Amino acid sequence: MSLKALVADDNILNIRLLRDILIDENFEVYMADNGLPVVEMARELLPDVILLDIMMPGLDGFRVCELLKNTPDVKDIPVIMVTAKTDGNDIRQALDIGAFDYIRKPFDEIEVVARIYSAIRYREQQNKLLEFATKDSLTGLFNRAILMELFEKELSRQERCGSDIAFVMMDMDHFKQINDTYGHVAGDTLLKEFTGILAGSVRQSDIIGRYGGDEFSLILSRLDSDNILLFCERIRKIIEQSKFLIGGDTISVTTSMGICVKRPDQDITAEDMIQNADAALYRAKNNGRNRAEMTQSVS
Predict the structure, then answer these.
(1) Which of 18, 70, 218, 267 could make an SS bond with 168 (beta carbons 3.0 to 4.6 A apart)?
(2) Which residues contact 297 (CB under 8 A, 6 or more apart)?
(3) What is the pLDDT of residues 153-189, one digit of tens each?
(4) Does the pLDDT of residue 32 top 60, yes or no?
(5) Is the preceding peptide bond at 37 cis, omega within 30 degrees of 0?
(6) Average pLDDT for residues 21-26, to the nearest whole number?
(7) Under DSSP, is residue 296 helix (H, G, I), strand (E, B) or coil?
(8) Domain boundaries, position 130
(9) One domain for residues 121 and 149
(10) Which among 103, 101, 38 has a CA at the least distance from the CA of 74?
(11) Same domain flag for 148 and 285
(12) Considering the domain boundaries, does residue 139 fall inside one?
């Protein structure tokens, strides 16, 4: 897949020079001759790097960079300022408002390419660090800390939108026996395969995380209370009907689920919802496993 670059400059010769350099490096190049459309173009295109001329009509490069850095879905895209000025104050201002680097005119092709790739490598490294901090290393799902943070945000959104929300605790039945029989390496393989089936069974809007061990959590929104249990039952049946290759054997596993639902008119904390879901999971285990138990929050 080609890298994408967005170039904004009011001088058509500069745009052509940068475009030719980038095309030679197999970039897809998108261009603007003023600063006004840059933020919307960035949101639509999600380029890998943005090159901004400092002096442009409409909005200058400083203001465009500020807007980009205050727009959540594009704020992490590296911005490289392009300038013919030699005043160090301009460069300092650009870096202070969030630009990654700068390129001086007239262009040196080698320098342009080096600075662009340096910016892209830096972003890739930052993305890896962010993923390491937010994702569970075994399953690739959100880790517990991030799951709790996302749950708090979903609760706030639910209060604004006036819809039901559910927190689901689930785990594999008899997972310890599988670990004892086949070993922990096989157990980890099972957890990863289980994760794949679970991720393929939910909606794009649902949030999945690994709570710990063989416990997983779902945050379900945009479903009313009557349909939440049906939705979880569908997931439970998909898992029950799946086959897993573990230690040379094909096995089946089941899952138990505890569900806590909150209506928009109820006043209950995220911590209380988690405790209620955990208690419902405990009931599911005591009632024979391979089942979902739901509790309504009490305000």
Answers:
(1) 218
(2) 260, 261, 262, 263, 266, 268, 272, 273, 276
(3) 999 888 777 788 999 999 999 999 999 999 999 999 9
(4) yes
(5) no
(6) 96
(7) strand
(8) 4-134
(9) no
(10) 38
(11) yes
(12) no
User: How many domains does the chain fold into?
Assistant: 2
* Tokens describing residue 44: 């639509």
Report the interhelical angle of 109-134 vs 12-24 (nearest 10°). Answer: 70
Which residue type does 10 have?
D
Pairing label, strands 255-262, 165-172: antiparallel
Given a contact cutoff of 8 angstroms between Cβ atoms, the answer to whether 77 and 47 are in contact is: yes
CB 26 within 8 A of CB 2: yes
Q: Is 88 helix (H, G, I), strand (E, B) or coil?
A: helix
Q: What is the pLDDT of residues 6-22, one digit of tens each?
A: 999 999 999 999 999 99
Residue 276 sits in a domain whose CATH number is: 3.30.70.270
All residues at 6 or more sequence positions from 29 whose CB lies less than 8 Å from its CB, including other chains: 4, 5, 7, 18, 19, 22, 23
Maximum alpha-carbon separation in the chain: 75
Report the b/e string of 144-182 with b at 16+ CB within 10 A. Answer: eebbbeebeebbeebeeeeebbbbbbbbbbebeebbeeb
- Taking 70 as the threshold, does the pLDDT of residue 296 lie above it? no
- Identity of the amino acid at 52: L
- Give CA separation, 145 vs 140, 142, 212, 231, in Å: 14, 8, 11, 25
Segment (H or E) for 79: strand 79-83
Rounded CA separation 249/101 (Å)? 55
pLDDT(226) > 80: no
Catalytic residue positions, numbered: 214
Look at the block and give the residue holding tokens 């285990």: 285
